[in-house]
Amino acid sequence: MKNNSMNQTEAKGSESQTGVPTDVQTTSKKATKRSMFRRLTMIVVIVDVVILGAGSAVAAISMGSQPAGATPQGPAQVIAVTSTTPASDAPAPTTSTPAALPAITIAQSSILYTGGQSAFAPGVSASVTFTATNPASTDQSLGTISLLSWSSNVAGCSSAAEAGWITMSPVAVNQDLAPGAHAVATSGVITFNDAPVDQDSCIGAALSFTYSNGGTGTATVGGPRPLVLHQASITYSGSGGLAPGTSATVTFSVDNPGTGNEFIGTISLLSWSSNVGGCSSAASPGLITMSPVAVNEDLAAGNGHQVAGTGTITFNGASATNVCTGASLTFTYVSN
């Protein structure tokens, strides 16, 4: 009985109530604790994040089995983590420049010279009207019309050579134009300005005008209107009239039969004649002469203009060769 009790007591000492030996049960618990500790140490990580650029990053993760607070050992393992910023669903804003509208074009539709004239002359103006065409499909505004240049079929008669001779002040239109052709409500005035110089280079010229907005037009310059010269007075250097070796001083007046100004440059003795046979410039050239008289005046329309400058008529030759004794002389003058 006593031995049996001892055997039972040893058996109790080596078995737990669960039937598992006590030493085995204790070892299992220790292993479980170490396993739990290892699992805990495995989730302790050191994370360094390095920003690479917009939309991406790299996380440097140091993995180890060290417990918390322990110094990490070994190189960190680098894991690249890339993230992409999703594109916006909204379309990117766009800008566009509207196409330019085709420009309004103009054309000279009529020209009317002032003073009943049929062409330009120095001092003469003309009224011009225009047609404007809007080629666009929408309304456009026409501001002003300007004369840009003018030319002709005669050398030296152009705005390039004589810019100030023919001018037109800008025409203020300020008109809204629907698509199509329209008469411009405002007319322009073109003037052939009278200049204090010889403007004969434009006599008889056909003019061509270039306006703004690609406009064109035409006009003409009238032919010459001869001035009428009058010998206003004569004063002899000797008594009784001209004689061989003497001279006479003459003055002039001029009529301008035109409606515009005319420029007179010089007056010259073209020819002379008499009531005596053989006493003429044709029969005796060089016997009676006069040097050209410089006048250089701009004469308005009208008659009786007294001009500056006097002429000197000289009777050349000796008295022995005088074939004009007692003759009445007639002088013919010309200007340019």
Number of DSSP helical runs: 2
The second-level CATH architecture of the largest domain is Sandwich
How many angstroms separate the termini? 177 Å
Helix percent band: 10-25%
Overview of the molecule:
Strand 1 and strand 2 (56-62) form a beta hairpin. The longest helix has 21 residues, at 22-42. The protein is built from two helices and 21 strands. The chain has three domains: 2-67, no CATH class; 105-220, Immunoglobulin-like (Sandwich), CATH 2.60.40; 228-335. It has helices at residues 2-14, 22-42; strands at residues 46-53, 56-62, 77-82, 105-113, 125-134, 140-145, 147-152, 166-168, 171-177, 180-183, 188-192, 206-211, 216-220, 228-236, 247-256, 262-274, 288-290, 293-299, 302-306, 311-315, 329-335. The model is unreliable at 1-18 and 35-65 (pLDDT under 50). It starts with a helix and ends with a strand. It has 336 residues and is mainly beta. 10% of the residues lie in helices and 42% in strands. The strands form six sheets. Strands 4, 5, 8, 10 and 11 form a five-stranded antiparallel beta sheet that branches. Strands 14, 15, 17, 19 and 20 form a five-stranded antiparallel beta sheet that branches.
Keywords:
single chain, 336 residues, mainly beta, Immunoglobulin-like, five-stranded antiparallel sheet, 2 helices, 21 strands, rod-shaped, disordered N terminus
In short:
This protein is mainly beta and 336 residues long.
Secondary structure: elements and pairs:
Elements: H1 2-14, H2 22-42, E1 46-53, E2 56-62, E3 77-82, E4 105-113, E5 125-134, E6 140-145, E7 147-152, E8 166-168, E9 171-177, E10 180-183, E11 188-192, E12 206-211, E13 216-220, E14 228-236, E15 247-256, E16 262-274, E17 288-290, E18 293-299, E19 302-306, E20 311-315, E21 329-335
Antiparallel strand pairs: 1-2, 2-3, 4-5, 5-10, 5-11, 6-9, 7-12, 8-11, 12-13, 14-15, 15-19, 15-20, 16-18, 16-21, 17-20
